[in-house]
Design goal:
Strand content: 5-15%
CATH class of the largest domain: Mainly Alpha
Largest sheet: 3 strands, mixed
Distance between the termini: 71 Å
CATH superfamily of the largest domain: Winged helix-like DNA-binding domain superfamily/Winged helix DNA-binding domain
Helix content: 40-55%
CATH topology of the largest domain: Arc Repressor Mutant, subunit A
CATH architecture of the largest domain: Orthogonal Bundle
Bound molecules: zinc ion
Number of domains: 2
Number of strands: 5
Structural class: alpha+beta
Strand order of the largest sheet: 4-3-5
Amino acid sequence: MSNERLRGELKKQNLRITSQRENIFSFLVEHKGEHFTPDELYKAISRKNSRTHISKATIYRTLEMLVKMGLISKIDLDDGFERYELKEESGHQHHHLICTVCGKVYQLDDDLLDDLEKIIEERTGFKVKDHQLKIYGICPECLANEENELKPKLKVSKK
Ligand SMILES: [Zn+2]
Ligand SMILES: [Zn+2]
Ligand SMILES: [Zn+2]
């Protein structure tokens, strides 16, 4: 399956291909675009592969290893947890929009920063490898709620 990518990287770095490493990576591939805490991964992967035991320590270690290998990203969505998501082969493919009212995370599926990276490289001679971006705002749902609240309420007197 898509584990070819993982196997190739492990080989390059002379690391062993283990079923635990494969299970963690393929879970993230299957749930592309989702953001997991190590704890959530531990529960989901243990449930899915009930025959092979995996410890929390292995999950943590493997996640850090995958980040170093450039296969996944560690992200902070301001909810107090460290989260991990798959990094696509062509680099990351979406950015996060965080609603400051409800805390919900939306995704922007385009990476509009490729041009910015090019400009930075041209101006500074810096070879850009990655970037992080979080956009804060108010989501459409919360905006609609806010507007409703601002509307003067009709005073209906019941008599
Ligand atoms: Zn994401
Ligand atoms: Zn919201
Ligand atoms: Zn980007």
